[in-house]
Design a protein that fits this description.
alpha+beta, 5 helices, Peptidase_S8/S53_dom, Peptidase_S8/S53_dom_sf
Length: 236
């Protein structure tokens, strides 16, 4: 395709993974089944898929990747569909501001006036995703703080307790440790602190993985945690 002469607004490249039709089908079921959710945004559907995946196959064995190795937490997360994380178009604006885009460039994307000096900036990890992706290392002495807001789409009266698998060489705290809902669509925000331990990333282990799981008497909702130890970068 000659990009200098084309008026096309998009291009299709070969090599798309088979995950695309699979996920498209799941998204279609969520939109059109007998328990459909036609009002759900793409972000809500993404959250539903990520937090309801299973780590075991039908034989009760760990799911493997294309090399027949056990798939890791970067690929899989186990949960039931009762809590949902939402994210809106407005939530991306401070992230774009923090990614060194100019006001004018962001306005082209959002089709609205944007002033980054008023909006402020956030790192990628602060986006309300159903996962945590952290970059840190032994040179990082400050804690990283993030929040997530979840909406109850399960039973009106629900209580979820924290179950935490802390990644290698990391310290974590979560507040509150109990989420108590009294109605459907109620939202609760929880706060997560990450801090690298001494020697993180210097023992030959380049990354860590874990999960943050909310468990009720009937359901559990899990967000995977991925940590990259980069001792050559300075985080801001």
């Amino acid at each position: 395709m000659d990009w200098t002469q084309s008026n096309a607004t998009f291009n299709i490249m070969s090599g798309t993974s088979m995950s695309c039709p699979h996920l498209s089908g799941i998204a279609g079921l969520l939109k059109s089944s007998h328990e459909s959710h036609p009002d759900w945004s793409p972000a809500a559907i993404k959250s539903a898929i990520m937090t309801s995946a299973n780590v075991l196959n039908l034989a009760g064995m760990p799911i493997v990747d294309q090399m027949l190795n056990r798939a890791d937490v970067l690929q899989l997360v186990q949960a039931m569909l009762t809590l949902r994380k939402k994210i809106t178009q407005e939530d991306y604006i401070p992230y774009l501001c923090g990614s060194n885009y100019t006001d004018k460039q962001i306005q082209i994307i959002t089709q609205k006036t944007v002033n980054c000096s008023q909006v402020g900036v956030i790192p990628e990890a602060q986006l309300n995703y159903p996962s945590f992706s952290i970059t840190t290392g032994s040179n990082e002495t400050e804690s990283q703080y993030y929040t997530r807001t979840v909406r109850n789409i399960g039973p009106a009266s629900s209580t979820y307790n924290l179950d935490l698998l802390v990644p290698h060489k990391m310290g974590m705290s979560v507040k509150p440790e109990v989420l108590t809902f009294t109605e459907v669509n109620q939202e609760i925000t929880y706060h997560v602190e990450f801090i690298a331990e001494d020697g993180a990333g210097k023992d030959g282990v380049a990354f860590g993985q874990g999960y943050l799981r909310w468990v009720s008497d009937k359901h559990n909702v899990t967000s995977p945690i991925s940590v990259i130890f980069d001792n050559h970068s300075i985080l801001i």
